[in-house]
Design brief:
This protein has about 400 residues and is an alpha+beta fold. It contains 13 helices and 9 strands. The two termini are about 30 Å apart.
Amino acid sequence: MSFAPRLLFAAAALALASPSLAQDIVVKGKPVAETAADLAACLKRDCPPDEDIKATLAHAENLFVNGDYKTAQRTLHASMGRNRKHGEAYPLQVSDLFRANSRVAEHMGEARDYQLSTLDMRNTLRDSFGKDDFRTLVADIEVGDSRAKLGFSEEAEKMYRDVEKRALAAKQFRVASFARVRLATVARNRYDLEPTSANRKELDKRLTLVTDNPLPGGEEFVLAAKVLRAKSDRKHGSTASTDELVKEFAAKGGASRPLLLYSEPLARDDPRSAGWPDGFDNTRNASLGTSTNRYGQWVDVGFWIGQNGKVSDIEVLRAKGDSAWAKPVLRNISRRVYAPLKTDGDSTPGFYMIERYTLTARVTDGATGTHLRTRELTPRIERIDLTEDPAEPAKSGG
């Protein structure tokens, strides 16, 4: 398993169609005791930094998958303390360590830790490879993503524009295409919030730049732009572009792996509008020590994607705490639209997916006029993919 990103731009483009920007974690099922022993043995023999980080990531990911977020965070923080100074010698490994911590911080509601770890990840790569290396440019997009997720869309937009400009100058056309799709995402979000003709015109302009004038090597981002258009159109009452995408894949014989074409937004700003259970209690202005135990609850949801792209057999596989809050998650998954899959002779291929959803709220400092750390009043649902890499389709039993 790996918290590290897959720096394949096709994967990055397809991630734009998912409900979240989170990177994948691949479940392999190694016991926590074994990864703990591996890390302890590594440290005991004073292993090199790259081996230390590899063992740390394996154990932290294992802890995360098993729901022990706090120990995963402590494990990562300890390794960051040991290995931050080795960023020049091991830039990729150290940047992966910071990135992993940012993922865990998201699910714990630790916005500052998430923000700083994302910046440390980017800075480590920039210091070693320069600001126009493709790894740094992609990391800058990740920083932009973090600003967007924390509510600073204008800052994110400036970062995406800067990456686009630098990538074009460096002839990193795939990165430039990635940045253009991100800029279209900002425009789409703006139009969804304020559906004016001016905002629609700007969205169309940014999408058309990608779909009608693809840069060399960036053709796969055309699909990402089409998906964005379909998502926006459906939100505003039109299914025509989604139907066209489905027909396009059917005509080509189907997709070879799960490709999400549409998912309804999972409302986070108003829990009740998202269908959260009656009686949800956010325990206002409570300190972290006494706040509701709902935070940190999580569910692992499994489901099949059939050959026709439809979702079936949705179920909660594991949960920590009362999973009633996850009802809108299950409903959201049931309404997704995936691309039709390639057929395998007379059989019906399918993919089994597992996703982790965590109920959390962001941590703030001094919101009550004291030095107590508190949680924001608005709950959030964070998502991350736990699916084993679906390189080959599985066969659905029954």
